[in-house]
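Hey, sorry to bother you again with one of my protein questions. I've been puzzling over a protein and I'd love to understand its fold better. Take your time with it, there's no hurry, and the full record follows here:
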Amino acid sequence: MSASPAVVMRLVASAYSVAEKAGSIVRKVLHSGDLGIVEKTGANDLQTLADRLAQQSICASLSRRFPKITIIGEEELPFEEAKEDLIENGQAEEILQKSCPAEYSGLKEEELVVWVDPLDGTKEYTEGLLDNVTVLIGIAYGGRAIAGVINQPFYNYQLGAGAGLGRTMWGMLGLGAFGFQLKEVPGDRRIVTTTRSHSNKVVTDCVDAMEPHEVIRVGGAGNKIIQLVEGKASAYVFASPGCKKWDTCAPEAILHAVGGKLTDMHGNAYCYDANVRHMNSAGVLATLRNHEYYVSRVPQSVLQALKTD
């Protein structure tokens, strides 16, 4: 009998099952017809019943099994005991059977920080743009995003009743990424994906400076990173402080696991320690390949507008 899996592998395996449970909660709320929408800071910053229940489910499930990890969730919710039907105790067997990269095999629970976005793309969710919606669970150690899980609750929804609805992908540094087919945009094409609802002149100037052949405007940070790893876009360019650590931790880990890169607009890495500011105040620049090209194209005016912390 081999030794029991490393703590971080058990955490990723749990996060996988927990993300699937959160995805089913997100679908259930939509089908109920009552989204329970409240505005947080304005019409572009919404919270729904699905955000609240999915976060409760994720945080309660993970902290019950891993009481010493630090969990930081997007939604500021009053503490209440999660109902038992929100708890997910399962763990993805395929993950438990993988060998943990040596550098992470001795990690302890208290060294790990989990960043949770229970429903990334809330505005799109309320507008029926369901392919933009993801559940994000990122795991960080020593300030770096080392593993991540992305669930797409409505993957395949346009194919109708017969199609399997939803999918979950995951990745870990030193292991790779799973649950999707890695593809690249043909080398001579520059396709930039950027924000759908948070644009302004700085954002537009920066996108234009990349000299893209095509620009795709969609919602959700998780969704944009999926576009990069599935060959639909070559760069995710968001020259604005609107993104938070829970938006980028899981996607960054998956992107980095397949050789991509996510930084701020200056080319600096983000830190995911428990005590960092939540805002990614110097924007987000993510690529599968040729990161230096895109960093080099960022206009001086944009760099001035987005000072690093």
